[in-house]
Amino acid sequence: MWQVVIIDDDQKVLRGMKKVIPWERLNCQWAGEAKNGQDGKDLIRRVKPDIVITDIYMPILNGLEMIQELKEDCLHSKVIILSGYNDFEYARQAMRLNVADYLSKPASLDTITEVLERMINQLQHERTEQKQMEELENKVVVYESLVEKEWVKSVVTGTANVLSVPKSIQHYIAKWKYKNHAVLAITYDEPLQNTSFYHSDWNLFRFACNNIINDLMEETFSDFQYFEVHLFQGILTIHSEQDSELFMDSLHNIAQKIENSIQSFLQVKVNVSIGSILSNWEQLQDSMKAALERTVIPTSVSPLSEKAIVTNALWTNGMEVSQKLSEAIRHADETAARHVILSFFEKLKDQPYHQAAAVRLGIEMWTIMTYSLHDIGMNLSEILPENKDLIYELSVLTNWTELQQFIEKKTKQICIHQSWDENKKHRQLVEQIVEYVNEHLSENITLQDIANELYISRNYLGQIFKNIVGESFKNYITRIRMERAKKMLQEGNYLIYEVSEKVGFGNPAYFTTTFKKFTGLTPTDLIQRRPVNQ
């Protein structure tokens, strides 16, 4: 409940207001009273109320002096002055102190109640905005972490333009100039489809594994990034001021700890291979390649291998290939997937065929497909239920061409499967929603209204929208409104309140707040920055 204190030297006023104000209806609570400004100041500092109702003329310290001193203490309460003095100078002082309202005695109960309701609405709005701002700040922290991680991932996979570093990344990599760098490849020693985690709670496994790795890394290194590459592999990039020899000792130590801890806590065997140490972060891809070259093919992959076999250049460039294949699978783009597979196997045609290595390659590509579909809510086992013994199917193949044809066949089955029909229907539904939003932007559009029109649940519709668009309906419609408003303001054909109405905001003040939150500028600021000839 909202806390209210009243400061007045008239006992009748105190007693009367305490009795007649509809506290429960307003969701307010009487939090205390005082009869002079000094006691009032002490009370407010102690209680920290949401609303203060005060007289001006009181003994020891008057109401305005009390407010002045509390303002110096960063008073956040809404202050309502209720005074028998109508002196203009008092009113002007109250304005300077940002007093929320100034009422003259005697004020009617309706007037007091109306002012309290307005103050409470403002408080509620401010609290909502504060919560949204805190959420935004938290998202920024998470977003910045993701930006750093994605940039490092692009450097490692060789897709980043290291000569043109985005401004948002520069402060991250400035600290790497005088450090050594290395990549660790963390590979699961068996297909995760065979583990209990895959069938019970895959997300729990990812969370647990991420926590174990981060906790261990923080004991030794302060600057590192961990990200998943595939369902079966993760990558650690590490940056250290240690000299190369000491750094390598630390890398061997942390690699052993990761292997032991994941085996101990999650009962999943992993292999951690160490890439080369480099003084230039731009060459992280070389360290990654070295780590992959040292990655051991686990004996559990194929009964044909009598011992672990070290991979050669077979999968050295596999991360870039896997990203392209994953993207093609996510969009059911059979042509793009076939092109990726064809390009990859073209490089293998002159390589000697090794059955165990081919089995592993097939499993890796299969796992990429599984993971890609899992990310968009589809299950590979439902699309291709006949694949009960993948290792056997791969082990009977005798050359690279047969493996290529096997992968191409499975990819085609995935891309043309009827499961995509449902996905296509969802996309068409979202396209209709987007079209409706664009045509009715000036109206009060809610997801519930749209759901009612379509006779489906609001939550289900919201989930479909977010899966397809990548953001919630609420965020989407706010973004579209702000982009439309920005364009209209820059064109200069409408006043601010007209723009507010045309993008669905009945309250210009709330429109201004939302616009600034989205663009960093108020509508007035944007207009002032508009070129003079516009």
UniProtKB/TrEMBL annotation:
Alphabetized Gene3D superfamilies for the sequence: 3.40.50.2300, Homeodomain-like
UniProt subcellular location: Cytoplasm
Keywords, in A-Z order: Coiled coil, Cytoplasm, DNA-binding, Phosphoprotein, Transcription, Transcription regulation, Two-component regulatory system
Keyword Secreted among UniProt keywords: no
One GO term describing the cellular component: cytoplasm
GO BP annotations listed: phosphorelay signal transduction system
Main location: cytoplasm
Tagged with keyword Lyase: no
Domain HTH araC/xylS-type: 431-529
Domain of life the protein comes from: Bacteria
Regions annotated as coiled coil: 109-146
A GO term for molecular function: DNA-binding transcription factor activity
Modified residues (4-aspartylphosphate): D55
Ranges of residues in domain Response regulatory: 3-120
Transmembrane segments: none
Protein name as annotated: Two-component response regulator
Species this chain originates from: Halalkalibacter hemicellulosilyticusJCM 9152
